[in-house]
């Protein structure tokens, strides 16, 4: 059984002239905004913890590495549940 669920988030992103999509920040459900310090990797992948698949961005926010997924037209992160 998974200990994570999908947490849908608002993402500020930029499309380059070449058509590349680059997420810049995440806005959490409670309105807090987190700047993305660095994009480490981008690939098509599944979320093994929360289910679903799409484009997986490995990102760094405040020194912590995490995954950000673009599934069709919605962004989500894996949220741990207790």
- N-to-C series of helices and strands: EEEEEEE
CA gyration radius, whole angstroms: 12 Å
Number of helices, counting only DSSP H or I runs of 4 residues or more: 0
Domain count, please report it: 1
- Stretches with pLDDT under 50, minimum 5 residues: none
Distance between the termini: 12 Å
Q: Strand order, biggest sheet?
A: 3-2-1-7-6-5-4
Biggest sheet statistics: 7 strands, antiparallel
Helix content: under 10%
Strand content: over 45%
What does this structure look like?
The chain is built from no helices and 7 strands. The protein has 82 residues and is mainly beta. It has one domain (4-80). It is globular, with a radius of gyration of 12 Å. It starts with a strand and ends with a strand.
Question: What does the secondary structure layout of this molecule look like, with pairings?
Answer:
Blueprint: E1 4-15, E2 21-27, E3 33-35, E4 38-46, E5 53-61, E6 64-71, E7 74-80
Antiparallel strand pairs: 1-2, 1-7, 2-3, 4-5, 5-6, 6-7
Summarize the structure.
The protein has 82 residues and is mainly β. It is 0% helix and 67% strand.
Keywords, please?
single chain, 82 residues, mainly beta, seven-stranded antiparallel sheet, 67% strand, globular
């Amino acid at each position: 059984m998974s200990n994570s669920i999908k947490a849908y988030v608002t993402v500020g992103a930029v499309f380059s002239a070449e058509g590349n999509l680059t997420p810049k920040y995440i806005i959490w459900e409670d309105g807090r905004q987190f700047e993305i310090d660095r994009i480490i990797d981008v690939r098509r992948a599944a979320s093994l913890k929360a289910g679903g698949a799409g484009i997986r961005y490995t990102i760094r926010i405040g020194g912590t590495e995490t995954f950000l997924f673009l599934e069709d037209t919605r962004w989500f992160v894996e949220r741990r549940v207790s």
